[in-house]
Amino acid sequence: MENSLQTDGTGDQGTVAVTQTETGNNTDTAQSGGGLIAPQLSNNNMRDVNIVHINNTYVKSAARTDETDAVSARTEENIVQRYQAELKSYLLNETKDLFQGTEENGSSTSLKKIYTELYITEGDSGVNDEEKKIHLNKIFEPLSNGENPPQRVLTKGIAGIGKTVAVQKFTHDWAEGTANQNIQFVFPFTFRDLNSMKDECFSLMDLIGNYFKEVKDLKTSDYDDCSFLFIFDGLDESQFPLDFNKNKMCRSVTKKTTLDTLLTNLISGKLLHKALVWITSRLAATSKIPLKFINRVTEVRGFNDEQKEEYFQKKINDEVVAQKILKHLQSKPLRSLYIMCHIPLFCWILATVLQSLLTDTPETELPKTVTEMYTHFLIIQTKRKQQKDYEKGEPDKDLIMKLGKLAFEQLQEGNMIFNENDLKDCEIDLKQAAVFSGVCTQIIRKEYGLHRQECYSFIHLSVQEFLAALFVLETFIDSGKNLLPSPTWTVTSEIRENSIILLHKNALNMALESNYGQWDLFLRFLLGLSQDKNQKLLHKVFGLQGTHLQNSQETIEYIHKKIKKLSNYDKTINLFHCLNELGDQTLVEQVQTYQSSGDVSKISPAHWSALAFVLLVSGDDLDVFDLKRYHRNKVLPRLVPVLKAAKKAV
């Protein structure tokens, strides 16, 4: 490595240059006829330098200043390294455990012990080319020689697929020093936490310093010199307008502005233009970010079959029980649930439920729908309470309804995180609940947000959506009150008998009109909970009203009509899941007849959507999808889910 000193004069003054090469030989030069007395370099430290006489002008060398600057630079570098080490230590501790509900002993599971690698692909795989699998820790690396590394990455995936766990694993590996060490600072944020500050103004330095106190003393110059990664998890939970067109430009890390403005300037590359940005989102909400600001889109696809088996073995520990569960899931009646096990969150809930059912009540009929699975999950938490033999406590029905009220009201506001006052507004005393009820502590977890203050959330958004649907339905059954918005009707005694259909239609319209799919799972749960099987379970365990609701045929026909008109394939597939909750397979059975006959030329639009659903849940490996067989352009949008699931389309 070369070390050099140059002292520049002005006018006719000469330049003195001293160079020490790697071999240690000195090459001394003087220009403009000046005399030279060369300084000596030893062990990369500058010794005393004499006054140099050049063209009768005396120029004092700045070596002393350079030495001071060098020491200062090294000191600053050491300070930055100390901040980095402190941040890594904090993040390592925050990410070492994977929270999967609340274990009975109050502890969580080691991330390293339970983590199963997720299947992640680049872009919208399966449409034109073979999918490109990408490792989690390489999402900011070029996939081929000559390709520029991406600076801003958007990772999408359905609810519960593992996006947040992916962020946790990425952050943990960086903090541990095993990956992405070219990045000096990683700042993981969640939109659900940032929502609580959406009306406040910050500078970027203030935001980071408040959130990560370990680096609050970073200097302005450090933001120019260091490499940063900003992670924003859960775009679908964002309450920010993210107005990229109207927000003012902000290029200074010290300028105070709205949090929305900070976000849009960071994401667009105007603020800290060299910084890396990683955003995660449910599929429907990705449109909030203009694609021109994104360099790479990845998708978390969850677990493949091999990874599902690996997860069950890790989660259950007992190989015999794990294999018994896998055998049940892979049987034809439960195949659709096994397909859904590519979602890690569902995998965990299913493992929890089936392990309990097969161990405690082996003769019980196993759940066949998502709603049945979540209903049993809620029941299991109640059984844990009973096993602990709590002497007192409010009835389960009252507590479940309070939790449901909290879930629904917060869902309406778009909140996935709340404080103790929100709990009190719903008459939930968390301290008392922790003593007297296993239900509450198994469903609500404590978090630490900005300034490390206590806040709360449901263990997953899908659990919040389930409880919200349960609250809306039970409120209707108990009082006839429809909590869903409907400007065209009110409940009266004359139409009370048919109003469950109106409740269903309200929920359907809410889901179809939502831009980001925030009511999709709520709708599935509401319809599923309306079925007799789940009503009987709820009545037996929780003492809920438990009533026989009238036939769902009118709701089924309404969904059929919507499927024929819909062009949004994500919403269409969700409606087929809704039909599955209602026990209706007519469209699916009809398209299976068409498919087996080999004649697909007369299939209606609704049947094309059904075909997509059939192919997705068939259990057959979609290594190659023969697109030529379904060549009509107008039906291709309805087959997009199949194209995405296939590894290659021809």
Structural overview:
With 650 residues, this protein is of the alpha/beta class. It has four domains: 3-61, no CATH class; 77-95 and 117-302, Rossmann fold, CATH 3.40.50.300; 396-498 and 521-542, no CATH class; 553-649, no CATH class. Helices cover 45% and strands 13% of the residues. The chain has 25 helices and 21 strands. It has a six-stranded mixed beta sheet. It is globular, with a radius of gyration of 31 Å.
Characteristics:
650 residues; alpha/beta; Rossmann fold; six-stranded mixed beta sheet; three-stranded antiparallel beta sheet; 21 strands; disordered N terminus
What is the helical fraction, as a range of percent?
A: 40-55%
Average pLDDT rating: 77
Assembly of the depicted chains: single chain
Count of beta strands: 21
* Cα Rg: 31 Å
Percent range for β-strand residues? 5-15%
Produce a short descriptive summary:
This protein is an alpha/beta fold and 650 residues long.
Ordered list of secondary-structure elements with their pairings:
Layout: E1 3-8, E2 15-20, E3 26-30, E4 41-42, E5 45-46, E6 52-54, E7 57-59, H1 63-95, E8 97-98, E9 109-110, H2 111-114, E10 119-122, E11 152-156, H3 163-176, E12 185-190, H4 191-194, E13 201-202, H5 204-211, H6 220-225, E14 228-233, E15 257-258, H7 259-268, E16 276-281, E17 296-302, H8 305-316, H9 319-330, H10 335-340, H11 344-360, H12 370-387, H13 396-412, H14 420-425, H15 430-436, H16 438-443, E18 444-448, E19 454-458, H17 461-479, H18 499-513, H19 520-529, H20 532-542, H21 553-565, H22 569-581, H23 586-597, H24 605-617, E20 624-625, H25 640-645, E21 648-649
